[in-house]
Specification:
alpha/beta; 9 strands; globular
Length: 172
């Protein structure tokens, strides 16, 4: 999906052809577009079990539960230097998919919301430069190698989530 040159028709066709487990509807940058985006999300739901709606307009802040039906997964765009949402994490009730951000930041957010899924490509980008996520930060891998960086990053990301119960709770 080309987000900069978005075509709903191409998105719907891709969903129809591939039947993804999850797909992400357009970001809600303006509350006035919400009805159209929810309609598009409903059409995408014919071909995908989980459709993510990403609220970004700050006017949605205290109205997410009221305005976005619970059959959709809420997408929280993790704030980074490239973007994110201005809506506070605590406003996201229900099922949440985290978009982007560092693995450690994503895991911290899960303590305040019910995270059901995450996506990020940060660790794959860092691996291209010989860095991996060690569980706390990105640093040069002691042995190097793209595949080693990927493998060790994924192992460390999985360790971060091992204590997560869902519903914004951590097992002790």
């Amino acid at each position: 999906i080309e987000w900069k040159d978005y075509s709903f028709d191409r998105h719907l066709e891709a969903a129809r052809n591939f039947r993804p487990m999850m797909t992400v509807a357009r970001d809600v940058l303006d509350i006035r577009e919400l009805d159209v985006i929810l309609h598009e999300a409903s059409l995408l739901a014919r071909y995908s079990r989980n459709v993510v709606v990403v609220p970004k307009d700050p006017r949605l802040r205290n109205r997410l539960e009221k305005l976005i039906p619970p059959e959709f997964v809420l997408g929280y765009s993790v704030p980074t230097r490239y973007g994110g949402t201005q809506i506070p994490a605590r406003a996201f009730k229900g099922r949440v998919h985290l978009l982007g951000g560092r693995p450690d930041v994503q895991r911290c957010l899960a303590d305040t919301m019910n995270v059901i899924s995450i996506d990020c490509n940060r660790f794959t980008l860092d691996a291209a430069f010989g860095d991996y996520f060690d569980g706390e930060t990105f640093r040069p891998h002691p042995l190097g190698g793209y595949h080693r960086c990927l493998r060790d990053s994924v192992l460390n990301i999985n360790r971060l989530w091992k204590t997560y119960n869902g519903q914004g709770e951590t097992r002790i």
